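To: structure desk
From: M.T.
Subject: fold request, one chain
Message: Could you run this one when you get a chance? Sequence is below, nothing fancy, just the single chain.
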Amino acid sequence: RNWIEDSEAPEIQKRIEHQKLNALLGLCEAAICRRQVLLEYFDDSGEPCGNCDTCDTKPQTFDGTIPAQMALSAVYRTGQRFGIVYVVDVLMGREDDRIIQFGHDQQSTFGIGKEWSKPEWQNIFRQLVSRNLLMVDVNEYNGIKITEKGFAFLKKKESIEFRKLSVKQKAKRDKSARRSKPVMSDESDQSLFEKLKEARQAMAKKRRVPAYVIFHDKTLIELASRRPQSIEEMLEVNGIGESKLKKFGHTLLDVILADRDD
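Reply: Done. Structure tokens follow.
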């Protein structure tokens, strides 16, 4: 994912690549025949092939009916326009500024999924996409939407099984999440980071795009830590290429230089 984000590809292409990666992960984590998963992805159906690894050795599964209903309900109640990370935060009851701003902390689905961890929820969502109950709209910043099959699943109160996230996978992803969590050790760096976030939010609002389209937090963190003093030095920061530098570089550099003078 870092390779995708750090590339100079247009944002729409990055969203497409993220969707491809999630679809591949969904296929890998599927609880049913690989052939059936591929057919379902293309809105088709068929019998188990009897030849793939999941047919040969049935993976550990669990009854995913309740979490699937929770996930689809949360997607619906948040307007079918947010990404997986946002909807997972709603399900886990995270008091995020955006969630509060949109009033989703008042929805009945807020905090109902605390029984599952974030990696487990992400695993569930990927399997819902691979089973064609949810779809990712790359034209709407990877917002997730319920498919016809997803609505039918809710209406008919069908059941579904999901592949369990292995202990090894869970530990690895928890470790990765902890490692990637923004941590600022210096108070002055933290202060600059917050100022850079405000500048990013203003630019995002002006362009009517999500803040991450401008820069991800990790890029702002590196800017706050390294404090480049020129446009040329900003190019050395991960996540900043010629294109974004031209569009947003001077604005952020002004914030950094102003913070130095405070």
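Reply (cont.): The longest strand covers residues 134-137. Let me know if you need anything else for the meeting.
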